[in-house]
Amino acid sequence: MQKTIVTIEGKDTIGIIAKVCTYFADNGINILEITQTTSEDNLYMMMVVDTGKYAGTFRDLTDGLNAVGKEIGCSVRAQHEEIFDMMHRI
To answer: 5, 27, 70, 87: most buried, per Cβ within 10 A?
Structure first.
């Protein structure tokens, strides 16, 4: 299992989760956890996904998620779990 942290930020609109989840399903990426918060019209979401069966490179993944983000008008970022954990360690 290779865990990746995906964060989504932007204006809350219909179909955001569907577009991101469709991208994951089309690319063999399994969603392990989802946390979502909304504030006024803004959406903040964090997903932990398993990219162990993803056929592309990490750069391919980030490029694909950036394209999805542009399509839905949100920022969609991916980080390796280890880097995410190091950045959030106190």
So the answer is: 5
